[in-house]
């Protein structure tokens, strides 16, 4: 094994967690019937120039999941009730963690079979079909393409949420500071596009480290001040419903999945670890990180809804008293944090688009620069256009969680696990039964969440 030793935890350990290009390897077309995986350990053959420490990997996953979605958790509880929301958040967290386990385990199995050190998300999914039933192997390349498209769509829609969030927060602040200025929210979105276009031209991940560093600091300070408001004069539990309405549950599940799901960053983090054997397991990096995330999300959702009740907004920061200085600081810091995070999240879809669509068609230094600038400007403009068309935060969050993240985070792992182990589904085909349940849950969340979010949008307009 030729992994360089690096026991320190440097800032490079905490840069963007969205490097999907890293460690993606083209899967060789071989027959699963001729491969022997008994003597190959992929961990021993990984060549990583700058491996990430165990602590660094833990912080990567925490950062990928503890984003702005946590601010929507009180609104999720408004759609579920205190008791059901708390229990269901833990259940969804367990489900998301289990599905990530399925994907990582499938990647390890395929790496041993194909004698490849590591695989990315789309390569893992495509390879599962290569090793699945013979009649499905011809779909391997199609599956890889579908996963890449799904990732691009997910991050694109998530960035639309960022634009709406920044604009609404800025509008609140400007209205407080300058009451006579009554710009429409859509105008703020157009104004926000200008600085986003500028920062979007930063292409190298290493130059985004300061973005990530300051975004994390702003986010932590904002959470601290928000909790200060949440725990002031907390109402009695009897003033809030323990269970809401069945008709509101699709919104709850969609928001929780949106807030919690970080499937796009898991494979790159695991592939870049210095000690990948510590990723899974009972006390592994994944379980510790997700347990922490679930506990924080359940706590914020519970006490946020307990504090504001039916008046809870799509983002709890919008509930804070804008006339008070600490609340103004929260809104401003969150805006800056989301702005700095925008470029990091944009790295994933642009990297896929560039490597698999544009790069093979562009040659020459000047043409490459022009193509990069054009691609980045069009992408940013696209997120702003969608945000302008739908300037309503809650339905967008619900739609992204229902369509994109439920498909990638729950449906996809269940399909991959079924295809990969089709010839060995366990006693009484228990794996098939379990995966069918996951598929049905995902499809139900997808359909019901989509219907609710589209209905909300129609009602607004």
TrEMBL record:
InterPro entries: AA_transpt_TM. One of its GO terms (molecular function) is L-amino acid transmembrane transporter activity. It is found in: Membrane. It is a multi-pass membrane protein. Residues 50-453 form the Amino acid transporter transmembrane domain. GO terms for cellular component: vacuolar membrane. The chain crosses the membrane at residues 82-104, 145-165, 185-202, 209-231, 251-267, 279-305, 369-390, 396-416, 436-458. It holds the Pfam family Aa_trans. This is Amino acid transporter transmembrane domain-containing protein. It comes from Aquatica leii.
